[in-house]
Design brief:
- There is one protein chain.
- The chain has about 600 residues and is α+β, with helices and mostly antiparallel strands.
- It folds into three domains: about 375 residues, Glycosyltransferase (Alpha/alpha barrel), CATH 1.50.10.20; about 100 residues, Golgi alpha-mannosidase II (Immunoglobulin-like); about 100 residues, no CATH class.
- The chain is built from 18 helices and 22 strands.
- The longest helix is centred in the N-terminal third of the chain and has 19 residues.
- The radius of gyration is 24 Å and the shape is globular.
């Protein structure tokens, strides 16, 4: 469990939150299909043999982080055994001077075509995740020694400036090591960690432009480091977000208010300009055409229907957007971050998982078929591993950690999935259960199942009221007439004494909303309509016997009916719009057989309305 003094919300102890239903099913699928199938020893071979191959060292840490997150909830013994062996193996590879690297010493820290520090970041993340799961002092010490070793190489001359490392983005990719470096400082107080972290922040992370100063000045993320040549743009989405996550951790260490404020400004800009209805961002056009095809900021919120875009919304971008939302939710307790976590989880993450659990879609799309295209992957002893398949499980693994969180005086409920929650008290536990069919229906039952030890004098349950929720009402099950209404986009605090058997009913309307295309830079993308139901993006599917791209009327929604999903997801909906009946399903279900079937979330309007 990570708990820092500046956090408003924090993780409950491991396995405290047990989700059921689709999220649990998908977690088991990915655990069995990826985390138990991948050969961690083979991933460590890139370090063992100093392979000096571009970015190969990232895979071990990404998958170790995900495995530890998921094992902390599921307590899967087989997975834990795999994790223990993998951690022991990696720690055995650390040299006496603290080095863990895939690069020969004489090439460091610029080796493997610039990926050395990027790979070390993930080695650190894997070791820290193992420490947080197990409390292993050896793992924490290995991480501390690696930071000390790195600080000895990176900094002001005669050390190597961090903005002179990396492969294409003028140091942004290398500077993202800031996050685990500051976590090492939190946990150990190591002076070298604070020194290295402070240096990275002061460097601005980029040789072309200080990314933090750019955001403070109101600059768009897509324009940071712009040199006038679209093919040389460096606004790489997920690497840049990683640096701002590091800035959040820097705030935890230093309590520098400018650090938190800058991270919040960045989030606001990304939300305003980049995040689509799917809960992700980034694309291969129309503005930034540089290295990282399909993975750069491109004003994607406004360009999401632009037909010039082929690849967009990399799963790695989704995961790091979720991680940034999660950190800011911890630090601020602002409900808007929880809203976006839910949207990204239900749409971009769950929709990216292949039925065998062994692949996360690299570039999800709004219209077409599920996409096997990858930019970067290796075959690991027969397992085709891409960066997104390595990162995707972390997005899924975050769900139990933000679903219900600890607060100074109780808990915050952020996700209304059916679950059991065990909350530690001064001398015992409060166990709560939540039963719902959310997100299909806005009806939830929450009750106190058991209290061990003395009941807390005051136990506050802060209930997330989603921004979309209409007529949010909390009722005491014993006295339904005693109802409280809450404003959307807030937390409703339920405070007081609790006893076993206490129960509440939560009811709210989930609106069906029609969205017109955002009218970006290409008029050919203007004439489309999309529908959302609460956090869920809806889509047409070819399995329903209609070409998903058949144009529809842009009329008034006069009726809709919600049913259980026809294809293993959350819901199926019949909508009457402009006098026409449409059958829609949740995006996660769309094309989820991965058999070439097509789907469409942005639906074309009838030509007479163009």
């Amino acid at each position: 469990m990570r708990l820092y003094g500046k956090d408003i919300f924090f993780e409950l102890p491991p396995a405290s939150v047990q989700l059921t239903g689709i999220l649990a099913d998908k977690t088991r699928l990915v655990t069995d299909g990826t985390l138990k199938k991948i050969d961690f020893y083979a991933l460590a071979d890139y370090f063992r043999n100093t392979a000096d191959m571009f970015a190969t060292g990232e895979f071990w840490g990404k998958l170790m982080r995900a495995a530890c997150l998921i094992c902390g909830v599921t307590e899967d013994r087989e997975l834990r055994s795999i994790i223990d062996r993998a951690a022991e193996d990696m720690m055995s590879l650390q040299t006496p001077d603290g080095c863990i690297s895939t690069c020969p010493a004489h090439t460091q820290p610029r080796g493997s075509n610039g990926s050395d520090l990027w790979e070390r970041k993930y080695a650190l993340m894997g070791l820290l995740s193992y420490y947080e799961l197990t409390g292993s002092a050896r793992a924490l010490e290995a991480a501390r020694r690696l930071v000390v070793y790195t600080e000895g190489q990176v900094g002001l001359p005669p050390k190597t400036p961090i903005t002179q490392t990396g492969w294409a983005f003028c140091g942004i990719e290398s500077s993202s090591i800031l996050e685990p470096v500051m976590r090492v400082y939190h946990l150990t107080g190591e002076p070298a960690a604070l020194s290295l972290g402070t240096y990275i922040v002061q460097s601005g992370c980029c040789a072309r432009e200080n990314i933090f100063a750019a955001i403070q000045a109101g600059k768009s993320p897509k324009d940071i480091g712009w040199n006038g040549v679209a093919s040389e743009s460096i606004a790489k989405a997920y690497e840049m977000m990683s640096c701002f996550e590091g800035l959040c951790e820097y705030y935890r260490a230093t309590e520098d208010p400018d650090a938190l404020h800058t991270a919040e400004l960045f989030w606001d800009k990304v939300m305003e300009e980049e995040i689509t209805l799917l809960g992700s961002g980034g694309a291969d056009a129309p503005f930034n055409l540089g290295p990282g095809t399909g993975e750069q900021w491109n004003y994607t919120r406004f360009e999401q229907t632009n037909p010039d875009i082929d690849l967009m919304m990399e799963t790695c971008v989704t995961v790091y957007w979720m991680r940034l939302c999660y950190l800011l939710l911890c630090l601020t307790g602002n409900v808007k971050y929880a809203d976006e976590l839910e949207k990204s989880l239900y749409n971009a993450i769950l929709g990216a998982i292949r039925p065998d659990g062994a692949f996360f879609e690299y570039f999800p799309r709004f219209n077409g078929a599920r996409n096997p295209k990858v930019n970067y992957s290796f075959n690991i002893k027969g397992f085709d591993l891409s960066c997104c398949t390595a990162n995707g499980p972390t997005g899924l693994g975050l769900a139990p950690y933000f679903a219900v969180m600890g607060t100074a005086d109780g808990i915050a409920v952020n996700l209304y999935e059916t679950c059991t929650v065990r909350v530690p008290t001064q001398d015992g536990f409060v166990t709560l259960e939540m039963v719902s069919e959310y997100p299909r229906v806005g009806m939830v039952r929450l009750f106190v199942k058991e209290i061990t030890g003395a009941a807390p004098e005051t136990f506050v349950i802060s209930l997330r009221v989603p921004a979309f929720a209409e007529d949010f009402t909390l009722m005491d099950a014993r006295n339904p007439a005693n109802a409280v209404k809450a404003k959307s986009g807030t937390y409703l605090r339920l405070a007081g004494n609790i006893t076993e058997g206490d129960a509440w009913l939560i009811a709210f309307d989930i609106p069906l909303v029609k969205h017109n295309a955002p009218h970006g830079s290409n008029r050919a993308g203007d004439n489309y309509i999309a529908f959302t139901y609460g956090s869920l993006l809806l889509a047409r599917d070819s399995r329903d016997g209609v070409d998903p791209m058949t144009p529809i009327s842009d009329g008034e929604i006069t009726d809709y009916r919600v049913e259980a999903s026809a294809y293993g997801g959350y819901l199926c909906m019949t909508v009457t719009v402009g006098g026409e009946r449409l059958k829609l399903i949740d995006y996660m279900s769309a094309g989820n057989a991965w058999d070439g079937g097509t789907f469409a979330a942005w639906l074309p309007k009838l030509s007479s309305e163009n």
